[in-house]
Amino acid sequence: MSVVQDVLNGSRLALSRLLSQIENSTPEGHAALGELFPHTGRAHLIGVTGAPGTGKSSLVNRLAWHYRHPPEGTPQQRIAIVAVDPSSPFSGGAVLGDRVRMRDLSGDPGVFIRSMASRGSLGGLAAATSGLVQAFDAAGFEIILVETVGAGQAEVEVARLAHTTLVVEAPGLGDDIQAIKAGILEIADILVVNKADRPGVEHAERALRGMLQLAHPGPRVFRHHGALEVVPASQPESTSSESVWLPPIQQTIATEDFGLIELVEQIAQHRQYLHTSGEWEQKTRARMQSEFDELLQAALVERWRASVSDEKIEHIFEKLAQRQIAPRDAVAALVR
Amino acid sequence: MSVVQDVLNGSRLALSRLLSQIENSTPEGHAALGELFPHTGRAHLIGVTGAPGTGKSSLVNRLAWHYRHPPEGTPQQRIAIVAVDPSSPFSGGAVLGDRVRMRDLSGDPGVFIRSMASRGSLGGLAAATSGLVQAFDAAGFEIILVETVGAGQAEVEVARLAHTTLVVEAPGLGDDIQAIKAGILEIADILVVNKADRPGVEHAERALRGMLQLAHPGPRVFRHHGALEVVPASQPESTSSESVWLPPIQQTIATEDFGLIELVEQIAQHRQYLHTSGEWEQKTRARMQSEFDELLQAALVERWRASVSDEKIEHIFEKLAQRQIAPRDAVAALVR
Fold this sequence. Notes:
The structure is a homodimer. The first copy, chain A, is of the alpha/beta class. Chain A has 14 helices and 9 strands. Chain A has a 7-stranded parallel sheet with strand order 3-2-4-1-5-6-9, with helices on both faces. A two-stranded antiparallel sheet of chain A has the order 7-8. Chain A starts with a helix and ends with a helix.
């Protein structure tokens, strides 16, 4: 299949066409992904998530710039950016529409940016994103930044996909928001307090630190502007601090490029940690497993649907609607 | 089966045992639910959701009290409260543990309160909650209040289960939180601004109104303290305002019983709307359909697993781990 060879040879046009086929879930797209799969597994997948207004997009752009302009002696890397917007239809368009994407990066053949609008279905979105990431991975992009806008389940899906998850905050959020975000903090490998020139930055960092302590009880070392700070354990724990990753908090001002070099360094440290701890391999397996599980369910439902007559399904659904039969018994009747 | 008859006859002990069986997903529990199902369909399911700190629990308690102490001429109703805590394991215990549940209501045989801790799995939690609600419904509880703590997907699950969804807010939340909550506002049938004696209540209500306008463009009538207020349409729409439910915003102070009578009235109006519009029936069907779909997937995966040898699965998984085969092709190989 020539599109596969073209993608492997670095054709942007072939890659762009393939990405569209994957987004639209065409048979050609699935077939190409199947052929490309043996070439995947090298990219570092970085998820970037957080509330609207935290400046995620600017941060992602500056991160990409730094990977394209590394310090002397460090190899330049190819960067893919997947901007996912799983939020509700009414906000979705505006968020993506406004986006003025990276004047700094335009024309750079080592950068590929792809926006995905919401499809309504979270499951479908996750599967499509996973496909895009595999295509970029096979095409030789070493760093894949997956940026999500929104709250809740979408962030968790990103964390499941990514090796390293950045959760971006900004000063000026109330205490209540911190409480809500407890679940999101748990998925953070690195916490970024962006817009750190805004008033309230110290308060935001303190609040995050408190939440982190709740989320990861035990002795903790926070890296902050290069300095180390030990926070007493809220409960005794026997794990050695070498075998546990303690999410650092990094202040940044993306628009002024402040804190970005440190952030790139922390991402590199996390990657190192993933490899030495064996978590890189674990995360890769967990991701494959969950992708397998989702595809399996879809395939089984499809096969089942083809094996049962419409009449039988209608008959059982009628009994269900009349409450003559419970949902569990309806399933049992239709699955034998 | 005597437990079923005992539950139908109003035995609290039998009901309590059945609820445990449902929570633990035992075969006895499933069998009893199957027998009880024809007796379900009468209860009004009310979901109450919102961020921690908004005073949801107090609000639910006062609501229950009002249903137990109705005005002259209105029948008293039996109330079940299901407190679901799908939030993360580390916050879960504390939130439920602190709860001092309703001194006003203790000893009232027309009130039954059940707390459910998190099971880790959201899907399992939704299925168990659905089972509890069916048991309460069959046992003759006319009002079932399902209260969730947490953010994101859990709220959406509640909305899918409930006929009427209350989203509870409190003053003092920043602008960012409003943006995050866009998705949650969309599921609200009634918006409650609790702790309305706190500073910032007008700001919170204004912010919510703005969000509501984004979520439901078109001419809108907001009910607020009994007065009607027409907000101009942000885009033309042909739907008549009689056939559309416009979520009212109700200020309350649960601890002082302020606004509760009005809230009970708005819930009654929403129920009326559901019946006249046909949405009650639609929601019931959608709920059954999604419960059926989840149980079907689980049953199909179970049946498939029993039909495939461990060796074959291990062989394919090994090829998957080595990236010799893509997840979709692995599924195809295992499902024939």
